[in-house]
Amino acid sequence: MIWAKRKSTALTEKIQEDFSVKKQKLSGNVAEIVKLTDNIDLSLKDISDVSENISMASESIAVGAISQASDVENFSSFLSDMVTKIENISEISERLIEEGNRTKVASENGAGSFEELLSSNDMFGQVMEDIISKIDTMTTQADNISMATSMISAIASQTNLLSLNASIEAARAGEFGRGFAVVAEEIGKLAEQSRNASMEINNMVTGVINELLQVKVTVDNSKEVFKRQKVSVNESEKAFRNIDSFIKSSIEQQYSFSNEFNGLYQLKNQLGESIENIASITEESAATTQELASLTMSQTNATSSLVDIVTGLRGSIDNLIIEEDLDLSKEMNVDKKKLAMVFCWEHPFYNPTIESAVRTAKKYDVDLEIFAPKLQDAGEQMRMLAEIEERGFDAVAISPNDDAEMAKAINRAVDKGIKVICFDADSPQSKRLGMFETNGLNGGKAAAQVALKLLHNKGKVIANIWSDINKTIIQDRAKGFTDEIPNGTGIKAVTVALPANPPDKETERYIENVLEEHPDADLVYTTNLMWGLRFAKYFKKYKIEKKLISFDCDKEMGKYIQEGIVEFSIAQRQFVWGEVAVKWMVDAIQGKQIPRYEDTGTYIVNKSNLSIFSKRLT
User: Fold this and answer.
1) Which one of 3.40.50.2300, 3.40.50.170, 3.10.20.90, 3.40.50.300 gives the CATH number of domain 439-572?
2) SS3 for 260?
3) Rg, C-alpha atoms of the chain
4) The pTM is what?
5) Are 554 and 618 in contact (CB under 8 A)?
6) What pLDDT, in 10s, does the model give residues 83-128?
7) Which of 13-27, 31-45, 426-440 shows the highest mean pLDDT?
8) Cα–Cα 20 to 30 A to 95, which of 7, 71, 79, 347?
9) Alpha-carbon distance 591 to 601, whole Å?
10) CA distance linking residue 527 with residue 118, whole number of Å
11) Strand 568-572 to strand 602-606: parallel, antiparallel, or no bridges (unpaired)?
């Protein structure tokens, strides 16, 4: 009996011991399930957020696709109208060619007529010369006649005098001189008649000479008129030649224009087919995007159902813990790995990074602490690293403010067993394990490509670097920009140095100095967010008519983009940095290989796509 009782007691104790062990194992399993359900819940919330973003983006794309389809339809109608106008212009071009050919024929006929006129003018000039020569000859002959009549008149006067003397002598002779007196009288009459006739001839010759002289004056005047007329005819002939040359050139250009237009007309069919293809693809794209929106909605609903299921599972687990009186404190309070993120400074730009890092740390069940100096101060970052060493953190992700100065502090942390990675900015001389960032050179190239399109490959652009902080990422953003501006494009790129954190009251002075030094600049490219906001504020305040491109984008920058002050912003994907940083630190603690370098890339924000990315802006 006693033996049976002892055996029963021992069995009871063994059962209790076994139950205690099983309860402890159950507590451990339940603790693991609690952690898993919490992680699933966090993951589902992330999936839900992503689905919501996809849904918003797909709806926006769907609206854009529908609008694009409408635009394509409108363009197709416009194309039809344009083709009609092209046909009309082609007909007009053909008529112009016909008119040009007729004008050419008329011009050639006119030129031929001018050649005949020139020949006639030359003949007329020769005739005029002959007339003048003959007039001169006739004048000379008239002068000779006048001299002859003068001589005849003198002889007549002399004869008349002799007749008079003969009459006197005949009178003296008396009866014997009577017959001689009659002869002398007749000779006197003939002499008088000869004198009178010579006088009349002389008067007539004098009149002829006067008339010839007047004719000669008229002919001489006509000769001057003829010379001027000949000059005018020559000039007119040259003008006709020029007109003919112009007409020929015009016809050739018209033929060339007509040929080009015929080529354009022939392309209309290909263009029409392309538009039809674009319209078809656009409609398919709109339909696909709408289907994507529907699938996203279904995914959101499925995710919501999973959230409900996980919530119900967690409730059942909580009930199990209460009902079975499970103690999870030991399993839940195991030592967690301590991670730190040290930002370059405290700014809302990094809020998405912090949020994603905190969520990811919960998934990996690690402790995460955030450090950020008020300003971009390397000394303050070094003091924070010293604190992290002293408090025994396992890993740290840091965005160093000064490459060279921070290298010593990072190496000291690594030597004490802390896993160090860099993000957003690098310290290549240090012993850090890996680095991820938005590649500065690639980001600068993206900004340059935007600038080239904005300025149509012509103008002057300014890029800024920092004058007081040695940060490779800033220098790379400027270098990538200037290197991407190729020679021969007509664009001149210059770099200016500005302090990283000037007092607000001095900001305008720095900007004024830049604009005064480069008054012919057409575009300003700022390599970080704060200088982008400073220039945008200045441009808006003073109505500066220059184009502005900024690196990084937040809600304030988004407002300047919406207002048209800023043309484009090269935005970073800082919302993924937190996830990458925590994963890399956990992998490093677990001894896994992490990448030496990773570029998280950029995306371009402008006025047309601002609504799509607005949720990303902080």
Assistant:
1) 3.40.50.2300
2) helix
3) 57
4) 0.59
5) yes
6) 666 666 666 666 766 766 776 666 666 656 656 666 666 666 676 6
7) 426-440
8) 79
9) 27
10) 77
11) antiparallel
